Amino acid sequence: MPTLLETPPFDLADALNQGCFCQTLDAQRLRAQLEHDPSLGGMAESIAQTRPHLFSSTVVFLSNPTVQAITDTVAAIERVMALPAWHTQALADAAPIAQTDHGPVGVFMGYDFHIGADGPRLIEINTNAGGAMLNAALARAQTACCKAMDVPLNAYPKLESLEDDFFAMFQSEWRLQRGEQALRTVAIVDDDPANQYLAPEFEMVRQMFSQRGVQALIADAAQLEWRDGALWHGSTAIDLVYNRVTDFDLSEGSHAALASAYASGAVVLTPHPRAHALRADKRHLVSLGHLPTLQALGVSEADQRMLQTSIPACEVVTPDQADALWERRRQLFFKPRSGFGARAVYRGDKLTRKVWEQIVAGDYIAQALVPPSLRAMEIGDTQTELKFDIRAYTYAGQLQLLAARTYSGQTTNFRTQGGGFAPVLRVPGQSDIKKWLAPSGCAC
Question: Among 151, 207, 240, 443, which residue has the least CB neighbours within 10 Å?
Fold first, then answer.
């Protein structure tokens, strides 16, 4: 069997994803990263026991051109979404609470991609993308298995200071609404936060604030109170809420206090209903990939070309198109307009007639199927392949961190043995392949 160097011209990242079985996760390093503060003691053991498939033991490789294409796609989308015409279109039927602009843009935007033969393809946009803190710790817990790994393991020069960047992001959100007032109290808010799968990250965010002199607590949204013109958790008045609830327009009764505080401007909420309405409504994927819409919005020709390349074709599912969509279902992926976390999403080739009826009656989009890439792994004594997608964590259009999610099944999940979050490592370009691999003694 030929080695990597003897193989005909190829994409190095794909070759490594298919042929490198290195186990790079150092468990002791991960423990140290997760428990770097005494208040986080026991987190690594708790994750291992309750969330055994949260972290993969290996990495996913991306080429520098692919990373650049992801960065350029995010920048193009952000430019489109800053256009006044986009705001008019996106907010036309949004909830009243989303119409007010208090200034903040929303922390931890998430752009999810599949990597195809022709480059990255955007499959999802999220306004409250989870996992950035966990992935930063995971990336810092890798070790090189051979000299060839030294270059990509240093792909993030700011990895050690990422938490400073995350904290600065929240400070920016605060200043956009409050100017130079002092930020005193932060609440990390979700529904039943202790039982959320990413609950360990809430603790990491709490510690991040506390370490920098800001009082922080984790709260159930239903336990917040709106009184005396302020948002309260018990006897603590809340200045800023890091919002993790998935009721994006805050219309549920248990979120009434949060909704009132946000609508009045009494609390800085991030991310918030306006950010979701402008960026993460699934129907925006239809507009972003539709050339006549982009032209009508006044999008530059350069951004039109970029989005036509990186956004799969999407369309709204309507009863009058039901028969035609059913015939093409094997080439489509179906997503609910207000869905999240891969819930109620379906590959067309897996559909039953009963589910199809629910899709047609619901508020769905149909997205051209973009198969995920594969990562070869050794799980025990068995070699296998897992699917992966790439999440770009961003703020104000700037890339903060790339991470992969490895899995088996129709959609991403944390139930796959050997799967879970995995660091993304960048590899050199084609001209540097032999220089990078030949002296290294890489066993891949």
Answer: 443
Least confident window among 11-25, 43-57, 272-286: 11-25
The CA-based diameter of the chain, rounded to the nearest angstrom, is 73
Measured CA to CA, the distance from residue 203 to residue 183 in angstroms comes to: 19
Q: How far apart are CA 316 and CA 282, in angstroms?
A: 9
The helix (H) or strand (E) run that includes residue 267 is none
Phi-psi region of 246 (alpha: psi -120 to 50; beta: other; left: phi over 0): alpha
Beta partners for 191?
A: none
Q: How far is CA 241 from the centre of its chain?
A: 19
CA 5 to chain centre: 34
Tokens matching residue 261: 């505080």
Q: Is 250 helix (H, G, I), strand (E, B) or coil?
A: coil
**CA distance to 3, 16, 82, per residue, from 425 (Å):** 21, 11, 31
How far apart CA 99 and CA 274 sit, in angstroms, is: 6
Characterize the bridge pairing of strands 314-316 and 373-379. unpaired
Instruction: List pLDDT tens digits, range 397-415.
Output: 999 999 999 999 878 889 9
| Tokens found for residue 87 | 């705001």
> What is the per-residue pLDDT for 1?
41
Q: Per-residue pLDDT tens for 153-193?
A: 455 667 888 999 999 999 999 999 999 999 999 999 999 99
The number of helices, as runs of H, and strands, as runs of E, in the chain is: 17, 18
- How many residues does this entry show for the chain? 444
Please give the C-alpha separations between residue 2 and each of 5, 147, 330, in angstroms, as whole numbers. Answer: 8, 20, 36
- Assign 363 a pLDDT band (cuts: 50, 70, 90): confident
Q: Please indicate, yes or no, whether the overall pTM of this predicted structure exceeds 0.90.
A: yes
Residue of 367, 261, 242, 273 lying closest to 313 (CA atoms): 367
